Amino acid sequence: MISIPSKSEQPTSPLSDDWLPLAGLPEGTTARLRESDLQDSDRDLLTALGLSPDRALVICKSGSPCIVEVRGVRVGLSEAIAERLLVEPIDEPPVGE
Q1: Among 25, 85, 94, 20, CA closest to 60
Q2: 0.90 cut: is pTM over it?
Q3: With 90 as the cut, is the pLDDT of residue 58 above it?
């Protein structure tokens, strides 16, 4: 199973200035999941739901819950979890992922 890397698992890769907390993005934004600051069990659960590294997603609703669409499925996330997921906004919509 692929898991979302945590900050501690990638100490040599610098954070990009373009990466933002998922919770801070407006509705309709398309972004790519880059990194998380979560416990292993939480990361594994999100991966099972389709939120895996480099996966494109769309913000359907900001706030609590934060609702994202990934691979055609909507997933609700608590604001606390959404704050700990770093994403990179992208211009293209997710296509057939």
Answers
A1: 25
A2: no
A3: yes
